[in-house]
């Protein structure tokens, strides 16, 4: 009777727990809305075409840039760290998924005993399989598994974000170097012009046609031009060393490849169409969405910890006892116990864990929405900068052409004694500033294209990446 009564009690307890488990726990929504722009406020680039951003760098026609980006991505510690986070997140996902299945362990033992009695020495050996299973009635383990899977997807997206970030950093550094080389060419041409003017002024002053002060001014101008050229050359050397650090390409090899190609800025392929839904294809926004979903599942898991837990154990084994030339073999098996754990009093610990999980969820939602707003800002700023550089570029080129003509005319007048050295130097400085402005505008425009490339997600597609199980 006692055995029957215990069995009935266990069955009744399990039935109550299973009935309660039918009431699914409700947590905060795993997906929340963010205010995406209906349209961009800044003007979109024109005279371009919609391109595949995943191969955007190859479209610029600069093989050295593509090589530097590839090398930098292979040696980047940021990308390596992102890869490590993927591996760790995958391990967490597998471990949390395994918690839903029964656990099976094998055990074995051999014992040799000897007694100072009439009983002979004996050897006892046994082997068994032991199983245990926590029946996930209220979904605590399922919530942990789902949260781990969301964080795994988040880690994979952030790996792509790291690659896009490294590519943008290398490209900006490469553009800075090419701009520096163009400015160096301008500075060296200016230094040669100043040196020629100084030589002519020295000859004229030596013949008594100009005062010694003009010769001193011409020498000072030549020295200033030479100093600026040296300074610009040093800046280019610094940029080269920065690229070496980013890409791990030997400096001698990099210099050789730079010398083999013209010192011009690559022409980025225009991105003429940019749907507002582009933000959904940014890996950092996708990652933030996954963090919201993971936090939602964690709230459900914390809620489930406040309800009963049901577990079942069992074993099957075989043993052998050998003593005094006699061997006895026996098999054993057991099912149970079917155990129910019911939390009664924990001093508010579980309630506090639910509150903490809810707070983390609220934080994830705020971060996600802030990330979307920041993404909109980055796209809008890149579009504004592109429009600005496009409008300023024509004016800058027109100004440069005019200042060049003016300088040539002033130089001719100076050589014929019809203009002063001060007029010549003023015209020279104006022309030099205009040339630098045109070069720097091209650099600014290239940086704006890179910013737009990065703001648009760098060609990553979350749906296809996850579906294809890509990193």
3D structure, described in words:
- The protein is an alpha+beta fold.
- The protein has one domain (about 25-100, about 150-305, about 350-465): Outer membrane efflux proteins (OEP), CATH 1.20.1600.
- It contains ten helices and four strands, in the order αααββααααββααα.
- The protein has helices spanning about 1-20, 65-75, 75-100, 140-205, 210-245, 250-260, 285-305, 350-415, 420-455, 460-465, and strands at about 105-115, 120-135, 310-325, 325-340.
- Strands 1-2-3-4 form a four-stranded antiparallel β-sheet.
- A hairpin with an 8-residue loop joins strand 1 and strand 2 (about 120-135).
- Helix 2 crosses helix 4 (about 140-205), helix 4 (about 140-205) runs antiparallel to helix 5 (about 210-245) and helix 8 (about 350-415) runs antiparallel to helix 9 (about 420-455).
- It is elongated, with a radius of gyration of 38 Å.
- The relative contact order is 0.16.
């Amino acid at each position: 009777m006692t055995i029957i009564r215990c069995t009935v009690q266990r069955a009744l307890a399990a039935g109550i727990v299973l009935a309660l488990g039918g009431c699914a726990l409700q947590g905060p929504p795993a997906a929340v809305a963010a205010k995406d722009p209906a349209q961009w406020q800044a003007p979109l680039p024109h005279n371009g075409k919609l391109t595949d951003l995943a191969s955007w760098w190859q479209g610029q026609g600069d093989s050295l840039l593509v090589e530097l980006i590839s090398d930098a991505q292979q040696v980047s510690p940021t990308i390596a760290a992102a890869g490590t986070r993927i591996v760790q997140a995958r391990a967490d996902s597998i471990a949390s998924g395994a918690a839903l299945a029964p656990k099976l362990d094998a055990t074995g033992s051999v014992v040799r005993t000897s007694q100072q009695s009439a009983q002979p020495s004996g050897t006892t050996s046994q082997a068994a399989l032991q199983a245990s299973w926590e029946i996930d009635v209220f979904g605590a383990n399922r919530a942990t598994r789902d949260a781990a899977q969301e964080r795994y997807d988040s880690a994979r997206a952030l790996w792509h974000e790291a690659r896009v970030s490294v590519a943008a950093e290398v490209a900006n550094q490469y553009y800075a170097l090419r701009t520096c080389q163009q400015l160096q060419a301008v500075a060296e041409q200016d230094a040669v012009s100043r040196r020629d003017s100084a030589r002519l002024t020295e000859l004229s002053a030596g013949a008594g046609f100009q005062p010694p002060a003009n010769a001193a001014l011409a020498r000072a101008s030549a020295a200033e031009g030479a100093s600026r050229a040296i300074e610009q050359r040093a800046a280019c050397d610094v940029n080269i060393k920065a690229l070496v650090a980013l890409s791990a390409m030997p400096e001698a090899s990099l210099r050789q490849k730079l010398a083999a190609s013209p010192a011009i800025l690559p022409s980025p392929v225009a991105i003429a169409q940019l749907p507002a839904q582009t933000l959904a294809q940014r890996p950092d926004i996708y990652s933030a969405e996954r963090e919201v979903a993971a936090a939602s599942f964690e709230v459900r898991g914390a809620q489930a910890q406040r309800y009963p837990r049901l577990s079942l154990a069992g074993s099957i084994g075989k043993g052998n006892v050998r003593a005094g030339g006699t061997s006895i073999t026996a098999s054993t098996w057991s099912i149970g116990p079917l155990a129910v754990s019911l939390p009664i009093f924990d001093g508010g610990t579980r309630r506090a864990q639910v509150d903490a999980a809810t707070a983390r969820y609220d934080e994830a939602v705020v971060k996600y929405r802030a990330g979307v707003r920041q993404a909109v800002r980055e796209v809008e700023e890149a579009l504004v900068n592109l429009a600005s550089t496009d409008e300023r570029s024509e004016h800058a080129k027109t100004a440069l052409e005019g200042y060049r003509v003016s300088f040539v005319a002033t130089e001719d007048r100076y050589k014929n004694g019809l203009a002063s050295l001060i007029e010549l130097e003023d015209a020279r400085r104006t022309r030099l500033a205009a040339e630098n402005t045109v070069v720097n505008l091209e650099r600014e425009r290239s940086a704006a294209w890179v910013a737009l490339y990065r703001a648009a997600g760098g060609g990553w597609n979350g749906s296809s990446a996850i579906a294809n199980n890509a990193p």
